[in-house]
Amino acid sequence: MPVINILSPHVADMIAAGEVVERPASVIKELVENAFDAGAKNITVEIKGGGATYIRVTDDGCGMSPEDAGIAFLRHATSKLRDEEGLERISTMGFRGEALAAISAVSKIELNTRRKGDVEGTRVVLEAGDIKDMLPWGCPEGTTMTVRDIFYNTPARLKFLKSDRSEASACQLAALRCALGHPEASVRFIRDGNEEFFSPGDGRQDSCVYALLGRDAAANMLLCTGENDGIKLSGYVSSPSAGRGNRREQYFFCNGRFIKSALLQAALEQAYKNSLLTGRYPSCVLYLDIGFSRVDVNVHPAKTEVKFTDEKKVFDTVYYAVLSALSGEKRTAQVELSPSTRKLAEPKADFYRSMSAAEFRANSFSVTPPKPAPKVPARQDSSRPSTQLKSPAPVYQTRMDLPFRPVSAGSDPKPLEKPEVFPPAGSRIVEKPVQNVEKSPIPDHKIVGEALKTYIIVEQGESLILIDKHAAHERMIFDRLKSQDRQIMAQSLLSPVTVRPDGGDAELLEQNGELLTELGFEIEPFGQDDFIVRAVPADMDAGDVPAAIEEICEKLRRGKGPDPREARDEILHTVACKAAIKAGWDNDLKELERIVQAVLSGQVKYCPHGRPVSVTLTRKELDKQFKRIV
Question: Which of 545, 515, 510, 516 is nearest to 529 (CA)?
Answer without folding.
Answer: 510
